[in-house]
Amino acid sequence: MKVLLNGGVAQRGMIILPARFGDRISLRQVSPDDGAGTVAENMAWAEFMISRNYDAGMPPAPNLKALQVPLAGLDMVDVDAVPAAAAICNVYEHEVAIAEYTFNGMLEWVVGLARRNTAFKTGDWSGTPSIGGKPREELSGMTVGCLGYGNIGRAIARRALAFDMKVIALTQTPRPLEPKPNFLGGYDDLPKLLNEVDFLVICCPLSDLTQGMIGEAQLAAMKSSAVVINVARGHIADEDALYTALKNGVIGGAILDTWYHYPSPDNPAIHPSRQPYHELDNVLMTPHISGWSEGQQLRRWAKTGDNIEALLTGGELINIIRPASL
Asked: In b/e form, how buried is each residue of 252-281, taking b as 16+ CB within 10 angstroms?
């Protein structure tokens, strides 16, 4: 099997895949320094390609049997540009890391361990009952809303229920799902969710339906103490409306890991938004790392290897987004 690795996945794949398959596969990688001729030669050679992006500008890949996207989202894949004879598959396995990130954020919001540690090391005893400090809140009894109830939403819900939180979940196609939340509805039930939640976790796919789903009206309907957590895609929350709501105290705060602009070789230090979120004291922000864990990487490469094995042995591919057209 001729396997081509494109982009940042190449370095890890060139180590992991030979350890599993030995001489059963041949590996090549595409790097930014490759000339057009080299890229074209490798694309024509490939039978299995691992790449987070694929567009109409790619050279022909007449022998391609499968495109493996090494992540869940297809934001950078032009499905119509991928040869019809090639299946398109993705991979998940990020739900554990993202659920842990989400809980780290919620716990930091109510407990403030990092914040209190920093303050206490300067001699600040604020919060202690010894000097009449105000008691903090607890996650127990709070309500978390999951906008999206796929792998990520359900992983968050399992942990939330263990913390004795109430879980409200919305999904595009409501159906019985485990764990069973306190309420499960469709996206049209969003108004029912907004004024009840203490934390709104955006964990649904970005689509024409969900882009801008959290806008000015939705933010105004939330509690003034509510916190928005975005671990999905930045554009599901309107960029300007969210900033304005945070700046003006319409909601209590936000924990943001996904953004509106991302670095490129030409602009490696780009601001993540046209709005100065970094100036707001009620925002915790990270550079899209919520799902980036060692466990996630090992699980994803195992699933990717399973698809290579399926093609080698005539088995069934997993996580097919678009089947091959025979």
From this structure: bbbbbbbbbeeeeeeeeeeebbebebeeee
Three-state SS across 238-270? CHHHHHHHHHCCCCCEEEECCCCCCCECCECCC
The amino acid sitting at 55 is D
Task: Name the residue among 90, 319, 101, 53 with its Cα closest to residue 202.
Answer: 101
pLDDT for the residue 163: 98
Q: Measured between alpha carbons, how far is 222 from 192 in angstroms, rounded to an integer?
A: 10
C-alpha–C-alpha distance, residues 173 and 171, integer Å: 5
Which among 199, 104, 204 has a CA at the least distance from the CA of 152? 204
Only one residue has tokens 């109510």, namely 110
Q: Which residues pair with 253 in a beta bridge?
A: 227
CA pair distance 86, 61, nearest whole angstrom? 9
- pLDDT at 31 (0 to 100): 87
Give the whole-angstrom CA distance, residue 101 versus residue 82: 34
- Residue 97: is its pLDDT beyond 90? yes
The model's pLDDT over 200-229, given as tens digits with 9 standing for 90+, comes to 999 999 999 999 999 999 999 999 999 999
Domains plus CATH for the chain? 2-93+294-322 (3.40.50.720), 95-285 (3.40.50.720)
In sequence order, which ranges of 87-150 are alpha helices (DSSP H)? 95-110, 113-120
Give residue 289's pLDDT band: very low, low, confident or very high (50, 70, 90): very high
What's the mean per-residue pLDDT of the chain?
96
| pTM of the entire predicted model | 0.91
How many residues would you count in the chain?
326
pLDDT band at 72 (very low <50, low <70, confident <90, very high): confident
**Mean pLDDT along residues 267-274:** 95
Q: How far is CA 300 from CA 85, 160, 326, in A?
A: 24, 25, 27
Amino acid at site 313: T
The answer to whether 114 and 108 have CB atoms below 8 angstroms apart is yes
